[in-house]
């Protein structure tokens, strides 16, 4: 509550602006391989999220940035600059995570390592998939997020390759996931809003 609202008991123009300003949340696709299913999962997430109307959601595909592998260049490439600019424009994230050899993809790790301050003091949720729901990859990701000063939320929707994908390629999620997805988004928005206050 602003000083003027305390004193005069009415909304100021600043209060009204803060009330209508929405957070920007990026739904990050964590795979770049040919034949990937992450775009299907990302589109599903965005459809659910957009119905909430509580934030501005967008799908962020790391494949579109063509990031070089960390250490192979001097870091001044336009793609790295564009990646950092995109992350700077976001207040929070939802990572779409695939499990490869009990961990995240190399492409996602490289994308995480290709920025630093742009990640700091923001919140993130994780939606994972794999033979065990991608749980092992998600746990590895949580350790990385902690180092990047990203606060990962507790609720974690997990998708099974056996029950949520037809022939491992067509995404057909069970309705039961909706409760967890919305609970996760509740936490991402709450934490993103809180952390935004310390970045100003």
How many strands, which pairing sense, and closed or not: the largest β-sheet?
A: 6 strands, parallel
CATH fold type: Rossmann fold
Total strands: 8
Estimate percent helicity.
40-55%
- Which regions contain 5 or more consecutive residues with pLDDT less than 50? 1-8, 10-19
**How would you describe the oligomerization state of the chains in this entry?**
single chain
CA(first)-CA(last) distance:
17 Å
Your description of this structure?
- The longest helix has 23 residues, at 177-199.
- Helix content is 42%, strand content 20%.
- Strands 1, 2, 3, 4, 5 and 6 form a six-stranded parallel sheet that branches. Strands 7-8 form a two-stranded antiparallel ribbon.
- It is globular.
- Mean pLDDT is 91; it is low at 1-8 and 10-19.
- β1, α3 and β2 (55-61) form a beta-alpha-beta unit.
- It has seven helices and eight strands, in the order ααβαβαβαβαββββα.
- The protein has one domain (24-199): Rossmann fold (3-Layer(aba) Sandwich), CATH 3.40.50.
- By secondary structure, it is of the alpha/beta class.
């Amino acid at each position: 509550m602003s000083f003027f609202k305390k004193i005069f008991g009415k909304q100021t123009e600043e209060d009204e602006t803060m009330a209508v300003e929405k957070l920007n949340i990026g739904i990050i696709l964590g795979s770049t391989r040919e034949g990937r299913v992450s775009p299907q999962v990302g589109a599903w997430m965005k459809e659910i999220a957009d119905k909430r109307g509580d934030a501005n959601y967008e799908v962020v595909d790391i494949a579109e940035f063509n990031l070089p592998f960390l250490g192979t260049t001097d870091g001044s490439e336009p793609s790295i600059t564009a990646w950092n600019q995109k992350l700077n424009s976001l207040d929070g994230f939802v990572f779409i995570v695939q499990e490869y050899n009990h961990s995240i993809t190399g492409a996602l790790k490289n994308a995480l390592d290709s920025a630093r301050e742009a990640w700091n003091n923001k919140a993130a949720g994780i939606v994972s998939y794999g033979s065990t729901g991608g749980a092992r990859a998600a746990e590895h990701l949580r350790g990385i997020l902690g180092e990047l000063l990203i606060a990962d939320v507790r609720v974690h929707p997990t998708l099974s390759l056996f029950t949520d994908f037809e022939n491992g390629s067509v995404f057909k999620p069970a309705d039961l996931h909706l409760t967890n997805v919305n609970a996760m988004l509740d936490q991402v928005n709450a934490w993103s809003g809180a952390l935004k206050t310390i970045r100003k």
